[in-house]
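**Tokenised fold:**
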Amino acid sequence: MPALNRSADRNVHIYDAQKPDEKELGGLILTKGVTNKNFYDTMDVFIIVHGTYILQHNSRDTGATEVPKDDASLLPGDYYIVTAGREPMNPAHGNWRPLEAAHIFLLAYQEQWNDGNLSCSITKPPAREGSINSVQNGLLLDAGIHQLFDDYIVSINPSDHYKIVFFDQDTYQVAGNYLQQEFLNHPDRPVDELLLWHYRQAFLTNMKGAGAPVFEHDYPSGSDMVGDIFSGPIREQRMEFELFSRLAPFQDV
């Protein structure tokens, strides 16, 4: 018996507005009771969008119209994700390359992790390499946001409904948004204690006094990275940070 083709009878099709001629991102068979708001909610489940977005419905009769996030019945047809920031990614297509695993409490601060007994906050320790490498001390982030997160330019405030906070210009257009409830309901999601620690560090790093210095990370080939580090401020801490951050991806886990 041939496998069931769930997409055969779809009458709602979803596309990326920036690449309208490419393969559809997904779709559904429209049934009674599906509203525009329901449709937006499904987007938040299987499509990762950088920044804000709207859904646009294209029809021969009315042309392209923005879909309001309301309780009106969803109409059949073609829908396009129109982003204010960067293009959406669909993990279902296996494209995880723009994403990186980021530690909330950085590996470079293993000693502080031990001194603060933060392993007590971890309920799912890894098989090896220590509790600091638990999935509960990590986030899957865009590569660019990962760098900003490590530099405390962007953080998450768990005390304000998990709001995303930027301490510099937000070129990703995600500041003020909130983590999705589906993510927060997941048993492997980061623990609040670590998110709050990172947010407080970001607050201190950016707002206390003149703020902490911002360092170069993307050294071009042939640059004297070690010389630059040792000629600058807090060289010991910075060297430790660079060693951990650059060598961590190659550790045996």
Notes: The chain has a mean pLDDT of 78. The two ends are 42 Å apart (CA to CA).
